[in-house]
Write a sequence for this structure.
C-alpha cells in the first residue's frame, strides 16, 4: 500500500479514469441490451469493455500492456480456481434439493438436456450416462468457450483494477470496493432480466462481493490474472449451464434458485468470509 500522499493521489486519479472510461465504453451496449435486443454480440462487447478500458488507461498513463500479470502462474492456483466455483455451485443445488426448494431432474428432463447437448445418435444412453457426459462436456468445452469472454472482464477487473486499488486500500477494502463496482456495473442487465428486482439486486451484490474476496485472494497469491479468468468462467458455467438443467423447479421457490437466488448468495457469502479470513491470516 502506498503511503506517499502524491502517489496515492495519482493512483486515485488512475482509478477514477478507469471507472469513467468503463462507464463510457459500456453504456451503449447496456442501452442496446435493455432497449433493443439481448444479443450475444452486445453481451460480448460489454464483457470486453473492462479490458479495452484497462489498455486505454495504461496508454494514457504511459504504461505498457505487458505490465499486467499475463503469466500463467502456478498450476495449483488454476486447479483451485476451477474446483472452488464448481464446489459452491454443486453445494448450492444440493442444499436446494435437500431443503426441497427444487428437486433433482427426472429421467425426462435429463433426456431433454441430452438432446439439447446433441448426445443422441451415438447409441442408447441412460439418464445417468447423459448426466455424466453432459457435466463433463459442459464443464470443459463450455468453460473454455466462456473463458473467451470472462478474459475480457478479468483483464480489467482483476488484471488491472484490483492492483490499482491495492496501492491505496487493504485486502478487505480492495475486495469490497472492487466487488461493489463490479456488481453495480451489471445493473442494467439486472434491470432487464430480474423478476423480483429488489431481492435480486440484494442477492446479486452479496454474490459478487463474496466472489470478489475469493478472486482477489487467488489473483494476489498467483500473481496472475488467469486464475480469475478460469474462476469466473467455471462459476458462470456451473451456476447457469450445469446445475439448473439438473434441477426441477417447484412453484413458489424460484427466488431460491439461480445465480440471483437466495441460496447461492448464502453459500457464496460463506466462501467469501472464509477466504477473507484466510487472506488476513496470510497477510495479503
Amino acid at each position: 500500500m502506498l503511503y506517499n500522499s502524491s502517489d496515492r493521489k495519482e493512483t486515485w486519479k488512475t482509478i477514477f479514469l478507469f471507472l469513467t472510461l468503463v462507464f463510457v465504453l459500456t453504456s451503449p451496449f447496456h442501452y442496446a441490451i435493455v432497449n433493443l435486443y439481448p444479443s450475444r454480440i452486445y453481451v460480448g462487447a460489454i464483457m470486453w469493455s473492462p479490458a479495452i478500458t484497462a489498455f486505454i488507461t495504461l496508454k494514457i498513463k504511459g504504461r505498457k500492456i505487458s505490465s499486467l500479470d499475463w503469466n500463467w502462474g502456478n498450476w495449483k492456483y488454476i486447479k483451485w480456481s476451477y474446483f472452488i466455483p464448481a464446489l459452491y455451485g454443486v453445494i448450492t443445488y444440493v442444499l436446494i434439493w435437500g431443503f426441497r426448494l427444487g428437486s433433482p431432474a427426472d429421467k425426462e428432463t435429463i433426456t431433454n438436456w441430452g438432446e439439447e447437448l446433441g448426445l443422441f445418435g451415438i447409441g442408447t444412453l441412460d439418464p445417468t450416462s447423459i448426466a455424466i457426459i453432459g457435466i463433463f462436456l459442459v464443464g470443459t468445452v463450455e468453460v473454455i468457450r466462456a473463458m473467451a469472454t470472462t478474459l475480457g472482464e478479468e483483464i480489467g477487473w482483476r488484471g488491472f483494477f484490483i492492483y490499482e486499488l491495492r496501492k491505496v486500500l487493504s485486502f478487505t477494502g480492495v475486495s469490497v470496493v472492487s466487488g461493489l463496482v463490479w456488481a453495480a456495473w451489471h445493473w442494467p442487465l439486472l434491470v432487464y432480466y430480474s423478476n423480483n428486482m429488489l431481492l435480486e439486486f440484494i442477492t446479486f451484490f452479496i454474490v459478487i462481493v463474496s466472489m470478489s474476496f475469493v478472486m482477489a485472494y487467488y489473483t494476489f497469491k498467483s500473481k496472475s490474472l488467469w486464475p480469475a479468468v478460469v474462476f469466473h468462467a467455471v462459476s458462470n458455467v456451473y451456476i447457469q449451464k450445469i446445475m439448473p438443467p439438473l434441477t426441477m423447479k417447484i412453484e413458489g421457490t424460484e427466488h431460491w434458485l439461480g445465480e440471483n437466488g437466495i441460496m447461492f448468495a448464502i453459500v457464496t457469502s460463506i466462501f467469501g468470509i472464509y477466504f477473507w479470513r484466510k487472506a488476513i491470516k496470510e497477510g495479503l
Q: What stands out?
A: The beta strands are 102-104, 247-249. Residues 127-166 form the longest helix (40 residues). The chain is about 75% helix and 0% strand.
